[in-house]
UniProtKB/TrEMBL annotation:
This is PHD-type domain-containing protein. Residues 405-455 form the PHD-type domain. InterPro entries: RCC1/BLIP-II, RCC2, Reg_chr_condens, Zinc_finger_PHD-type_CS, Znf_FYVE_PHD, Znf_PHD, Znf_PHD-finger, Znf_RING/FYVE/PHD. Residues 464-474 have a biased composition (Acidic residues). Residues 460-498 are annotated as: Disordered. PROSITE patterns: RCC1_2 (PS00626), RCC1_3 (PS50012), ZF_PHD_1 (PS01359), ZF_PHD_2 (PS50016). Keywords: Metal-binding, Zinc, Zinc-finger.
Amino acid sequence: MTTTDSTEPVWGRVLIAGGLDWATNGTKGRRQDDLDLSQPHILRSLSHVKVTKLLAGCGANYVGAIDINGVAHFIGKMPAYGPSANKGIVSYDTPVHISTKSVGLPAGTTWVGGGLGRAGIFLIDSKGDVWAAGNNVVGQLGLPLSPDVPRLTKVKGPWARSAKIIQVATGNTFTLFLTDAGQVYAAGSSEHGQLGNGSTSERIVKGNKLAWDVQTPPLQAALEDKKIVQIAAGSQHSLALDDYGNVYAWGYAGYARLGLGDQKDQGSAPVKSTAARPGMFNIAGKWKITGDGSSGSPYTTFKQLDELGGCKVTKTAVGGCTHFITTPLFGGKTQSIGWGQGALYGELGFGPNIGKSSTKPQAIQPLEGIDVVDIAGGLFCTLFLARPNDALSELDRFPVQVESATDCLVCHKDLPDDPLLECERCDEPYHPGCLDPPLADIPEGQWFCPKCEKEGNELGLNDEYFDEEEDAPYEEVPVVKRRAESETQNGGKKPRSE
Ligand SMILES: [Zn+2]
Ligand SMILES: [Zn+2]
């Protein structure tokens, strides 16, 4: 195991599995190509970056990562920041880098967290402010109503001036915000009571169209007397964990996903959910297609999965239809386990010889020996954060092949007795003795050429994003609170994340 400098935060390299064809992910006419990674690969474009935090969302067809400099990097179909020429799609090869400087924050501020929604992106800065961009048609960004917010804009919530936002949880049309004082705020659609503020305000307008209240700016969810330490959002429901280990649930209750014993939407206020065993994986609702736990017999309260036995859980993650845990093994190693029915693109990372979908939890074999410190599930792909070690160096990179020179980049010679050292990222060869300073030997473990090493340390830090579209203000709808009409979410169809 690699040890870390005590002053340096725990960092790792980004691995990715699943569907990287962002344009056609989730569509029927999906291209069959080589962009489905059935096992985790080192993401080459970020392989030289020291990442401290992964960003993904179970409804988001894009993923991101924050590095030790506090710069955020994204690939996929972004709701903002993507190149408009390419329908907002950012290739796995050319991530978008967003620094705090690019939104006008002073030097020394960093991104420390965020939330990726289906249509909205959130980043939290080191001062505790939250920034949002993307679709804001029902106020789900916590910003004054507008069809679209093209650039990260600070959310001015009703929380105290001294309060810091420490977590954001994104649903499909709403967002939860958690302050360091343990208070939860919510913004967006309250169609199913997912804001937890006592309002569903649902009323039939005509036919099967519904209308509901839009809350903006964010309202405080009804948990004022609790100290909440963690929040989570499904597509239309919300969960909060307090400092005593109690879980509160509210919002859409289809398949009894709130764990409250029935399928009645919980719109009036958050309700304490069933006691679950601490340190274990517990699940409620429908999580597979047939048998116990399917739509016919969902788990109406939070239950453990038999297959996981008494597995101690160190990390959990959920994606579109994927579930992951990490569990400690003897000798300080970690095992990564995944399951999920309906996974199509390899997002469980089991490898080419095992099915892409699994109702039963299984060890992710390609990650054996790899020190996975975090997992983040997206709608169609999965990110893993891995500490450098020998097993990681053996893992394939993606793209697997890149064009590189055959001769040393310094002396342009390929001397038969002189071994060449290849950069982990760009594959360009160098003689150890040609480097400045020269290396006596081929170093063990990961090695990056001077160019990649420098770029990895500074990626995005010097980028300016606002030069071309200076002060491009978004179009605000001049009403702070109003009724918005919209069709029933998802057109009556269940989204894949359900
Ligand atoms: Zn050379
Ligand atoms: Zn290189």
